[in-house]
């Protein structure tokens, strides 16, 4: 099931990054697009058309796209307060309690992220920064193939810690109905959110970015999603802020001969089951381990009835693999170049390799820190950068929800000296009026 590759082949295939638009898109997605649009168009073109229509026609266009794509009638996009509250008693108490425990750990983790205002008098007058939360933030919560209540906690709690006042959630209807999974609603209730709209994919991003009759536009859109969500976020950037690109999920596991092949196999399956476009890659210097992991994967797939076995088979076939390197150092070099969303180090003395790792959303150190713990309950947000964007961006965190406002409060003495310097720079730039304004302060 999992192919074993040498480094040269892996670099040409599964480790070869392309931009989101050029990424190899499964045929099934094109088939669906053809059904919806009547022609074989690129996902980015489909997203462009949806955004444009909803920007111009608001709720009516939202309803019509939701019918065409998700086969759902949504007379009223907003979920009622009573439905949100009732969900807490509808879900299994064990699920409620696990979500509440997770919420506590996520809050504790994010409360440790320091962002504060400061003022300083040591540079003449007063300089400083004011930290202000973003006023209104929209969250996309995936729900196309699996409802992800954990994503609500993982994205909304850092925003609440940052002080965001208005929080809006969009999440797709279950295919063919206007229902939302009660666990999603319950997670929203646990996080303290009461503004939830039924909208999926690019439609959701459109109503949050442009607003409609039923929703006030937001200042920033945050959260993970599939290809359509991620392309839509890219296209509305500028109209609103976005957190980054948290698209189809990716894990690289770097393991050596000491690793437990069964555990690694389970970790790769967990990754692959997310999406046809999910990426699960093992990199190891041990051919024996690679063979054993492949055998364990086959065993799991034949022994247990995994609900998402077909998605797993497809994503492992298209985007997964086991790459054999000469040593761990080479494995880390490949991983740094790929910049995976998650990197799991299942190697002897894993902590000793940390300083060599430069690009990834999160490092999961040792075999007990499997990525699934991070998905649900470890503490950091599981919304992490994908598509190579871990080269320049971070997991969702408190700083995504604040702005810094600079403070400049010069006194007369400082202004007098700085004014003459500023005047010189202004003249060098040929900006006479700038020079004049500076000079007037430099007496
Ligand atoms: N990077 C992260 O931090 C992170 C975290 C959680 C989930 N994820 C990713 O989120 C994704 C969830 O995907 P999902 O599909 O289950 O749910 P989703 O909610 O992201 O997307 C479902 C929506 O996509 C739209 N859509 C689907 N096919 C379409 C088509 N052919 N044309 C137009 N629109 C279409 C529909 O409107 C549908 O409601 C997965 O890729 C998962 O890996 C990433
Ligand atoms: N692995 C996903 C992307 O980080 C997050 C997730 C949610 N639920 C299960 N997994
Ligand atoms: Zn996951």
From TrEMBL:
Reactions mediated catalytically: L-histidinol + 2 NAD(+) + H2O = L-histidine + 2 NADH + 3 H(+)
Keyword Cytoplasm: no
Keywords carried by this UniProt record: Amino-acid biosynthesis, Histidine biosynthesis, Metal-binding, NAD, Oxidoreductase, Zinc
Keyword Transcription regulation tagged: no
Top-level EC class: oxidoreductase
One protein family per Pfam: Histidinol_dh
Active site: 341-342
Chain sites annotated for binding Zn(2+): 271, 274, 375, 434
UniProt similarity note: Belongs to the histidinol dehydrogenase family.
Protein name: Histidinol dehydrogenase
Organism this protein belongs to: Flexilinea flocculi
